[in-house]
Design brief:
Largest sheet: 9 strands, mixed
Helix content: 25-40%
Distance between the termini: 35 Å
Radius of gyration: 22 Å
Number of helices: 8
Order of helices and strands: EHHEEEHEHEEEHEHEEEEEHEHEEE
């Protein structure tokens, strides 16, 4: 029997005996053990396996929410542990999503997010990862959909740069920018910004429910072009709680502290609220620790256009913009304070709107828009019915909360 890492008698990547299958319990642990060096950060392997088990117990992952896939050679015998030799592996997370046609008709659908794409270093250069993803794309065409239904789209975040590897398989690159702000102490805070309120875990569910309603309403507005299809992953409580379960495990394990605050909110005089939900991301070193803003929302004053950019719709645009910029600046500054409290190296917010960038510059004039070219490259694959020629698929609310 070959060992799990044996290179003896490796099949060709085009071999008909290769098959993408769901991992059993032992294979799931073996796969996570193999990829730990890539994603465990500063955890040891056992703690990393505990974290993965912790995430499997979240609402997003339970009841088939997460699926572990492995590429195996069906002609080979299992190893002595009863684990098939894993040539490549990945995971998919089932997520709620919205789709709006150009006429504004909004439908709810299931999207799958692909993550933890990994090939054992001993097996690399043989085309196994490409074979795995090609087979996965075919499986995901109908995976976990109602009988006869087709998946509309799937997403992933590439950590191998904006290469053609994923694009060749249909996952096309989408905007992957962020603003990065430095931590800040209270004595350095800007003067005259509105007061903020910190959010707790108890606030998240109601905010997410309201956020979803706003997003549905915005997407229900007819697109400016008949050749536009808009999609969005739903920023629901299950998604936010998955991120928070991750930070809570790491906060207690690495810092011996529990991250109670989950974001910040501010009232915009008689115009609703602006608020954000954040999470703390712990990397391999302290320089890799980041406070990520998962979702930023400005209620009532924002609509969403086809480029996923918020635009002001108030008649008194100048006054409205000033209020929004001040509110968002206050929220970002609160995030900077939280980053200092936790010893984070920076605050990051993905794909900011022009007004959000203006707010960032209000509190940190040197803030710039960073175009990521190596990690977390947002990518989307269309699986649904072939849209008319030149149809544009716009990803609305392309923010960190969607990542996995």
């Amino acid at each position: 029997m070959p060992s799990a890492n044996s290179t003896a008698d490796l099949p060709d990547s085009e071999s008909p005996t290769l098959q993408l299958v769901q991992a059993n319990e032992a294979e799931m642990i073996e796969s996570s053990t193999m990829n730990a060096a890539s994603w465990r950060g500063s955890l040891d392997v056992n703690a990393y396996l505990e974290r993965e088990a912790h995430l499997r117990n979240t609402n997003l992952s339970r009841n088939g929410g997460i699926t572990y896939w492995i590429l195996v050679d069906t002609a080979a015998s299992p190893t002595v542990k009863g684990v098939r030799r894993i040539l490549a592996s990945c995971e998919t997370l089932r997520k709620r999503a919205l789709l709006a046609r150009s006429d504004g008709e909004v439908t709810e659908t299931i999207c799958h997010a692909v993550g933890s794409v990994y090939c054992n270093s001993a097996f690399r250069g043989r085309g196994y990862a490409q074979r795995m993803l090609a087979d996965l794309a075919s499986i995901l065409d109908t995976w976990q959909q109602k009988e006869g239904a087709c998946t509309d789209f799937t997403v992933l975040w590439s950590d191998i740069g904006k290469q053609h590897f994923y694009a060749r398989l249909g996952w096309n690159v989408y905007p992957s920018t962020h603003i990065m702000l430095s931590p800040k102490s209270a004595r350095d805070c800007a003067y005259g910004l509105p007061n903020t309120s910190l959010l707790s875990a108890e606030d998240v569910e109601d905010l997410c429910r309201f956020d979803e309603a706003l997003l549905r309403s915005a997407m229900a507005k007819p697109a400016s072009s008949a050749k536009t299809v808009r999609v969005a992953l739903v920023p629901d409580a299950a998604t936010m709680q998955w991120h928070h379960a991750r930070e809570e495990f790491l906060g207690e394990r690495l810092r011996d502290r529990f991250p109670f605050t989950k974001g910040a909110s501010v009232d915009i005089a008689s115009r609703g609220r602006a608020w954000c939900i954040w999470t703390r991301t712990f990397g391999t070193t302290r320089n890799d620790d980041v406070l990520n803003i998962l979702r930023l929302v400005v209620e009532e004053e924002m609509a969403v256009d086809e480029q996923a950019m918020p635009v002001v719709v108030d008649e008194d645009q100048a006054e409205s913009e000033q209020g929004i910029v001040a509110a968002v600046a206050a929220i970002l500054e609160q995030a900077q304070l939280e980053a200092t409290f936790w010893g984070m190296s920076s605050v990051q917010l993905w794909n900011p709107s022009p007004l959000t960038l203006k707010a960032a510059k209000k509190i940190e004039p040197s803030a710039i828009l960073v175009d990521r070219d190596e990690e977390s490259i947002t990518s989307l694959r269309w699986h649904g019915k072939v849209p008319p020629h030149n149809t544009e698929i716009d990803w609305i609310a392309n923010e960190k909360y969607a990542w996995c």
